[in-house]
Amino acid sequence: MWHYMLKKGSRPVVTKVSQMIDTSSHKQKKYISLMVVPSYSTGKTRTLRVPRLLFHGVIIALLVISAVVLGFYLQSSYFRRTAIGLESSLEQTEARYTEFRAYAEMVQDGLMETAAQIYEELNETEYRANIELNRQARTHQTELEIIFDQIEEIERAIREMDEDRQTFIDGLSARGAVIPPVADLLDSLEQAQAQLRAHSRIHNPMLLQENPAPHGVTLLSASTTTNEACAAQVQAHLQIIMDELAVQRKLTDNALEYHARMDLYLRNFPTLWPIEGNISSGFGWRSNPFGGGGSEWHDGIDIPAPRGTEIHAAGGGVVLYAQWRNGYGNTVVICHGLGKVTLYAHTSRNLVEAGQQVQRGEVIALVGSTGRSTAPHLHYEVQIDGVAVNPMPFLNEHF
Fold first, then answer.
1. What is the pLDDT of residues 131-182, one digit of tens each?
2. Residue 8: inside a domain, yes or no?
3. What number of helices (H) and strands (E) belong to the chain?
4. Judging by beta carbons within 10 Å of its beta carbon (0-12, 13-18, 19+), is residue 291 exposed, middle or buried?
5. Cα 176 from chain centroid?
6. Distance in angstroms between the alpha carbons of the first and the last residue of the chain
7. Other beta carbons within 10 Å of 163
């Protein structure tokens, strides 16, 4: 350390401080001398002795304080910068929060609007669904009513079919009772019909009780289960009707099959009334129609009718005779097979010729009063193997 000393009127003399202190002194080593030199020339220089330990302690304390102050300063600067950064970040966060809040409110408004639209759409969809269900229910109701009407119509047709078939069979029986081949076929037909009727609920009350028909149509609701149950019931009943219809068809087909086998005999067998009218003279003994008393044998029946009335063949066959015959006048004789012959007398005009094939019910002549006759009428005979028999058992059908 250097010490500058100034003397008046001379230049400064520089002397080291170490030269001014006696370092060899033990006492000197315990202290540190501090010289206070005034900044003006007239001032008095002073020397302060400070214990070395105190000096060092002060220096260390100053250094520690400086370090602490510096540390506090640096830390305060860091905290200040951090606070500034946090404040800036907070401001940015607040700005973002404000922006996010505005966006969230906008999204919430949009969601609320969407939810309201969805709710309205759901309500409208549910309303439309209910309307559609009601419409479908009404449609199903109408369809079921139509189906029930159809079922009733089918049942009526089945009943009519059964009645017509029975009438048809009764007619066959009436026509074929006097025809031996037909009688045997009728017995077979009755047996076949009985076997088929065992599966018919019309002819078998037990089947009808096991499968009762539903009575009427109940009002349907919009419930799918109710519709399905009612549809299932209708379907089951319809199946029963279809089964019954199948049985009736089998019965009818069976009757037609036997009719086809009988037809060879029935279409030729004379069971048809040749004309409509009341019988004025029957088969057998009668009073003489020309007077004079007494009685005579009558081989046929007389049916009065206006002149020109059409006469029909009582059955199909071949014309054996178609001309004048004494007492009978204009006469037509038809052979029907199996030894059966019919005779039509007193006609005003014959419309067929010998050898001609005629069909059952075909017009063969016109009513007249030719030959031994008192008034227009038809004399009708039935002969079996050349012998006249009573025609009445044969007249089972009217034309």
1. 888 888 888 888 878 888 888 888 888 888 888 888 888 877 776 666 778 8
2. yes
3. 6, 15
4. exposed
5. 51
6. 173
7. 10
